[in-house]
Amino acid sequence: MSLVKLDQVHKYYGDFHVLKGIDLDIKAGEVVSIIGKSGSGKSTLLRCINGLEEYQQGGISVDDKEVTSEDIQVRRLALSVGMIFQNFNLFPHLTVGENIMLAPTIVLKKSKAEAQTIAKAMLEKVGLGDKFGSYPEKLSGGQQQRVAIARALAMNPKVLLCDEITSALDPELVGDVLKVLEQLAKEGMTLVLVTHEMNFARDVGDRVVFMHQGKVWEEGNSKKLLSDPETEELKQFIGAVL
Amino acid sequence: MIEFSNWDILRNLLFAMQWTILLSLIAFISGTSVALGLTAVRLTRNPVMTRFVKVYVELFQGTPLLMQMFLCFFGLSMIGYEISAWGAAILSLTLFTSAFLVEIWRGCIDTLPKGQWEASRVLGLSFLQTLRHVILPQATRVAFAPTVGFSVQVVKGTALASVIGFVELTKAGTMLNNATFEPFKVFAFVALLYFALCYPLSLCSKYLEKKYHVAR
């Protein structure tokens, strides 16, 4: 059963046609990597899925609910779609614990004690159980990103969108973050990642979607697609990144 | 003719300075309140309301405070609304202060990364919840120093109220000068007293800037 469904989605920035009729069907538990050159529309696509960007034609639904960028709709959507950003976007004035507890307390109306239990559990999960009281600025980039993951998980999302979440990290910190994602994938979390980590896409991902010039140029089983690309564009892209 | 000793001059100036302080305080407090309201209006992102705030800011930033005071004092009485020099001074200083503070605070809110809004949004926070829990706590920290810094402009701005006949520090200086014919001495005292008011404020502003800016 499909969890995220895109049907002929078109998006324009003014005259610029960013997404040119995207069809995509993501099943629950699937790990989908979206790859492609910068400017191919992959981040925009991700941001359309949770309503951060408007689209002009077509339809997107998550868990059988239609996605529009209207505020109230986005908020309802936030309950099923989590998102992690390239720049972490932690709240710098709050401690790690408070960062995670904020949305569960004020959006889900959980009690403080309950939110705290969840926050601690999520921090344990990402391997940062001892950082509950620290401020984000005291953490490394990799740790901050793992806190961001914990913050998203605390809302118990059905699908997690990851927008180049390792691109701003020092190379030696990338592994820790990917390990967390791998663990989540094993637990059955649905992941949609815009990523440049081809090894991760191949080894952990189920499916790869290659975007080119605003279209889904090629997609399929990740191992097969990355080792045996059909189109010239994907061959070139793989040659350039590997 | 009465002889004025240095102490007499200073004593009279100090007495008048109370009014400068009071006028500054009231103007600053009411200016801050109006600015808070206007900032809230601006944050609603309603195009009409935003436009209104923009015009308001341009209007009161783009005209001399003295003209605003003249308009409040003489203009309002021309259209049949009697206003005291005191009232006109407070009104014009409030308009002036709020126009600048709205703009200063806009800068403070806009310097926060867009990602803060987006992260809040994808976590399901409403606009008001985002403001209250994410944006304002950060923006106020940034805003402290420039706001206190701007209060120096308010204190100095009160000097203009002397022109519409309100007896504060500058007006008292002019009067004492007329009585003593010692402009250098009298106005040096006046200047020193303004400095004594403003310098601690700018020190405070610098301190706040260090405290809140370097940490981030």
UniProtKB/TrEMBL annotation, chain A:
What topology does the record note for this protein and the membrane?
A: Peripheral membrane protein
One Gene Ontology term, aspect cellular component: plasma membrane
PROSITE patterns on file: ABC_TRANSPORTER_1, ABC_TRANSPORTER_2
MF terms (GO), sorted A to Z: ABC-type amino acid transporter activity; ATP binding; ATP hydrolysis activity
Q: Which UniProt keywords apply?
A: Amino-acid transport, ATP-binding, Cell membrane, Membrane, Nucleotide-binding, Transport
Domain ABC transporter intervals: 4-238
User: Which cellular compartments is it found in?
Assistant: Cell inner membrane
| Pfam families membership | ABC_tran
Q: Which SMART domains match?
A: AAA
Its main subcellular localisation, reduced to a broad class, is: membrane
InterPro entries documented for this protein = AAA+_ATPase, ABC_ATPase_HisP-typ, ABC_transporter-like_ATP-bd, ABC_transporter-like_CS, MetN_ABC_transporter-like, P-loop_NTPase
Family assignment?
Answer: Belongs to the ABC transporter superfamily.
User: What is the recorded name of this protein?
Assistant: Amino acid ABC transporter ATP-binding protein
TrEMBL record, chain B:
Give the GO cellular component terms, alphabetically. ATP-binding cassette (ABC) transporter complex
Key words of the record: Amino-acid transport, Cell membrane, Membrane, Transmembrane, Transmembrane helix, Transport
Q: Where, by residue number, does the polypeptide cross the bilayer?
A: 20-43, 55-79, 85-105, 142-166, 186-208
One Gene Ontology BP term is: amino acid transport
- Pfam families documented for this protein: BPD_transp_1 (PF00528)
The molecular function GO annotations come to:
transmembrane transporter activity
Q: Which domain of life is it from?
A: Bacteria
| ABC transmembrane type-1 domain sequence ranges | 13-205
Bilayer topology: Multi-pass membrane protein
Q: What is its main location?
A: membrane
- Keyword Transport in the entry? The reply is yes
List where in the cell it is found: Cell inner membrane; Cell membrane
Keyword Amino-acid biosynthesis attributed: no
**InterPro entries linked:** AA_ABC_transptr_permease_3TM (IPR010065), ArtM/GltK/GlnP/TcyL/YhdX-like (IPR043429), MetI-like (IPR000515), MetI-like_sf (IPR035906)
Family in the record: Belongs to the binding-protein-dependent transport system permease family. HisMQ subfamily.
Full protein name: Amino acid ABC transporter permease
